[in-house]
User: Fold these one by one.
Assistant:
Number 1:
Amino acid sequence: MLFDELKAKKGKEKIVMLTAYDYQMAKILDKTGIDLILVGDSLGMVVMGYPNTKKVTMRDMIYHTRAVARGAKIIPVIGDMPINTCKNPKIALSNAKAFIKAGATGVKIEGYLPAIIKKLIANSIPVMGHLGLLPQTAPTYHLVGKTKKEAERILSQAKGLDKLGVFSIVLECIPTQLAKRITESVSVPTIGIGAGKYCDGQVLVINDLLGMDEEFKPKFVKRFANLSAIIKRAVVNFSEAVKKGDFPDERHSY
């Protein structure tokens, strides 16, 4: 099966997933050896400028999935099912098929939706689960699973997703020890974002990893570059070269 190799990494080798929203970034990521590319509905915030993911549509997601799929020739592309696309099994299946047609190899679904997930898997569509903080429906972004009741609910749902046959589960913004319990309790890989070091893998929004937004500084994000500063410096250098008449020079002219 397509994701057997990914499942085999559980407990042995950490899994790496990053988001991408366009052809150029997907083409770069495709050469890095990471495991998965997620076309996340986070594009609503980092690409479209919305305050959250609640306004992202299927049309938006399919457009960006097609672009990413053109650039990713090796790494599997996962399409993030946006809000209001899983109202019932029939609608969810139709939307999931649209992602596959656009070039995705699987879809991610937020929340515990057994009937939906069962329907998709029965129709040979690989599903990635997503528990903990659910941005599509959460009124605010905050740590989830702090109380015993919340923790037991999330753990139970993770076990349920495992039995349904998801190929992995994203755990977002939950306590480290809860993520550890879940990871040890399910047979499929867990991929954390703000869920500590015990998950089988990690995912970040590529814009956050690269330091594209100087104002966005959640605790779980580590910047591995400061691309915002690099871009601004490059633009200033270009502007100065143009104004001084240094660009274009003979080498860059026909």
Number 2:
Amino acid sequence: MRAKAKIRDARIPYEVPPERELPDRLDAVLRVVYLVFNEGYSASFGDTVTRHDLCGEAIRLGRVLIQLLPQPEAMGLLGLLLLQDSRRTARTSPAGDLILLEDQDRSLWNQNQITEGVSLVQQALSAGQVGPYTIQAAIAAAHAQAPTAAATDWGQVVSLYTLLLQAELSPVIELNRAVAVAMRDGPSAGLELVDAILKRGDLETYHLAHAARADLCRRLGRTKEARTSYQRALSLTQQEPERRFLNRRLSELPD
């Protein structure tokens, strides 16, 4: 409301850009919609894992975008949002506790959103212009179509993350690829990649990097290292469900 008041008081005119200018502005708009959804999908702080209002608004905007500009990346982004949001009900327990992808009850996933999301991904891929949102959507589709975490085509997921890194170099994408490598080749292979990322200092203050390292160490029986990494992740997160999850993992480690 304050922003609206400032716009009114400054007499800033509201103008819809000419149609010829819309494609040049698409990348920036897609980025904003993507960031709004991300904050809704995994809230950076607070008492809940998700903020449904932000996810819903991002999906609404995504639908508006493909009506105005049915470009491949706009379709890819909407497909990504729908596929991610399809898991909403399964991502937390009735008490609001975090449930990891591998432990989710997949019968709770929204099949209508999955069907629509996969269709949008296929349309975006068929256009031949594959951008980062479409690649991420293809990764989400691989998860959505797998009956279990173990049945996921982890080789395909790793390949898609490799392709995504070529389109958008990012240590977070590297981390996600490392986790997929761990699922394909085992925790030792994934841990080697995670340690290389952390050694560079790129994700030193990113709690999910330390949580991933902790989980891989736990799976390898390296309890002392797992405890240290869980504690580091716990010190960095501000979301209560994540804090409860990390504390639970710590309490489950053998002495």
Number 3:
Amino acid sequence: MSVALCPGPRVVRVLVADPIDGYLDGVTMLLRDAVVPTPAGPVALTLVATTRWGDDAVDLARRHEPDVVVIDARLLEVPDRDIVHELGTVLARRQVHVLVLVPPGADGVLGGAFRAGARGFLIRETASAHLADAICTVSRGHCWIEGAVSTRLLPPLAEVADTRAAASAEVHRIEQRLRTLTRSQHEVLTHYAQGRRPPEIASLRSCSVENVRSHLYAGKRRLDATDLALVVTAFFTTGAIRLPRLDLAETRH
């Protein structure tokens, strides 16, 4: 008699770079051997390395081959180096996804980080509440932009969206197909592009989180998009989302 074996959790290898030892220790304890439930099945987080330096993160990525690099935005400012780009191209066999922890005063690096390929942005002081979920999301090539701080993070991302779209045939194709979305799909994707997570969207629409996820991924399939980050970009470049210009210094107070 054959016995059906249950597949184990998907393993996500994580490298963490943060300049403060105490914070780094806390993140290490949070992530070490964590198993995170997700709609696609459980994800086992494996912490492969930590460092306090941005340039070391690139060398450690070559050595340990992580799926996700969690890095403090201050460590991206290395003279004459584009750390996010280097992390994104360091391995030929797998793509490394970058999740940026944003401390106060680091807004200036967000646009460059997004242009270079970073797809996750969390406010450093409150990251622990969502860090594991954000890592799981980013590891699948999706965006994670903390909803509560989207007005702080999205303006610099919107500024680079045109540059990214100009070089992307897929974004252009998505733009042409936006009109094919159902009303519900368009509404859910709009909320998502504005930085809201599925539980927030479900609360706004008075429906279940499962219903939100269903519309989110049905819309992605209808747009024939390989990456939700490209859908977000298309919403900006077509004007489907328009954000007010904010004084970013004021939003930190």
